[in-house]
Write a structure and sequence with these properties.
Structural class: mainly alpha
Shape: globular
Order of helices and strands: HHHHHHHHEHHEEHHHHHHH
Largest sheet: 3 strands, antiparallel
Number of strands: 3
Number of helices: 17
Distance between the termini: 64 Å
């Protein structure tokens, strides 16, 4: 390590101000600070409020994402291997694309009961998505940093992992590149870079793909990484449930008791399986790579809350908003809209609610910053999530749009909270 330190110090004058490569100083600085603690120290009187810096914060968030990432890779492989096994039981042999060619060349046999088999297949799908995201988004950030003369921040480490986790494993890689490029440029760099974006970058990237290329990020054919597969997620299944005008049964939950799946087009292999609350909580269901397991999200939440990086008030506000809104809709439902009768505890475990409230809603840049504002901000996101899920039939999922909606209103929420504090203090000052 001393040799590496010496090599970096030797080339430092080339990148320093006045050196022949000074324009590329942000690149040198990012490599140096990634490998070593910055050597600069503060002289004179200083006041330190917290010993955590941007690097430690971002690395902690990445560590909190590791459980969801590892489980997501396993679940991608598990869902695909289970589908292939169903086809084999029906006498159909599935060949697959280059992902499966690599998987089979490594000696794996698409066994859903093998953790290693499922992890490897999931990794073969996920790692290229992650690499494309980091390569494209990272280079865009590097270009903007060089042009502005700013240092390259570690903020993209989180965005570069969050965005792939919000995508289905079957998404084309070129769409990953286009999506992250849009998010980094439009939602972040045009506003000045790290710390100045008012929208969550990963969600902005996903929203762009959702509206620009809906066929590869929504519907019932994208959630399992097997060509020709068709099957709805829990939210998708509940959204198309047959209404019960009499209200005698919960039509939305009843639809989950036998979900239809199929593989193939001409003579498809079909089967039915239930989606239970437990399977939705554990995450052994279809969905985007990192969003399915509420349990893994809870582990991530514990890490973020324990380290003081994630706001428990925002998380609690979201849960409270979801519970209150769903209970309200449960009381006014007439049976014509099955989603309005879904209990709040089902809203907690289906879709990307848990992943969104833990890792997206708590983004310290785009979220509300006042303590009271965090409660209001979280409750607004929870309210909008259930409202979108239940009232708007075009969007069975709601957390993505709800968080972006909350991002837009976060500055206004903080403004009114601060204004109320100022008025209260002025009134107290006048009376005394």
């Amino acid at each position: 390590m001393k040799a590496l330190r010496a090599a970096l110090d030797k080339v430092h004058p080339l990148f320093d101000k006045g050196g022949p490569l000074q324009i590329a100083y942000p690149v040198y600085e990012s490599i140096d600070t990634f490998l070593y603690t910055p050597g600069e120290i503060t002289h004179g009187q200083t006041h330190v409020r917290d010993n955590i810096d941007l690097k430690r914060m971002m690395i902690t968030v990445v560590m909190a994402l590791v459980p969801a990432t590892l489980f997501g890779m396993w679940n991608v492989g598990y869902q695909a291997n289970t589908t292939i096994q169903r086809a084999a039981e029906a006498g159909e042999k599935y060949v697959g694309d280059w992902h499966y060619t690599i998987h089979n060349a490594m000696g794996f046999t698409n066994d859903p009961g093998s953790i290693a088999d499922c992890m490897m297949l999931g990794a073969i799908f996920f790692i290229p998505i992650y690499f494309v995201c980091m390569f494209v988004g990272g280079h865009i950030e590097m270009v903007f940093s060089v042009l502005r003369g700013h240092e390259i921040n570690e903020g993209f480490l989180v965005t570069g992992l969050l965005f792939p986790l919000t995508l289905p494993a079957s998404i084309p890689l070129w769409q990953v590149a286009v999506g992250i490029a849009f998010g980094v440029i439009v939602a972040k760099e045009v506003f000045g870079g790290t710390g100045r974006n008012f929208l969550n970058v990963a969600l902005t990237s996903r929203a762009f793909l959702y509206f620009a290329h809906a066929g590869q990020i929504s519907g019932d054919k994208v959630w399992t990484a097997v060509d020709g597969f068709s099957g709805a997620t829990a939210l998708g299944q509940m959204a198309v449930a047959t209404p019960d005008p009499g209200g005698e049964t919960n039509a939305a939950l009843a639809s989950l008791e036998s979900v239809n799946y199929s593989l193939g087009a001409a003579d498809p292999v079909t089967w039915t399986e239930p989606i239970t609350w437990t399977s939705a909580f554990l995450g052994t269901v279809q969905g985007c790579v990192g969003e399915t397991s509420v349990l893994m999200c809870l582990i991530g939440a514990a890490i973020l809350i324990g380290t003081g990086i994630g706001s428990w008030k925002i998380m609690a506000g979201v849960l409270g908003g979801v519970a209150a809104t769903s209970l309200l809709l449960n009381g006014v439902t007439t049976g014509s809209n099955p989603m309005m009768s879904v209990p709040f505890y089902w809203h907690f475990v289906v879709g990307g609610l848990a992943f969104g409230l833990v890792f997206m809603a708590t983004d310290p840049v785009s979220a509300s910053m006042t303590e009271k504002g965090k409660w209001i901000y979280g409750a607004l996101i929870g309210f909008m999530t259930v409202l979108i899920r239940c009232i708007n039939p075009a969007f069975p999922e709601g957390i993505m749009l709800a968080i972006l909606f909350g991002n837009v209103f976060a500055p206004l929420i903080d403004y009114f909270v601060v204004s109320a504090n100022v008025r209260r203090r002025m009134a107290r000052y006048v009376t005394t």
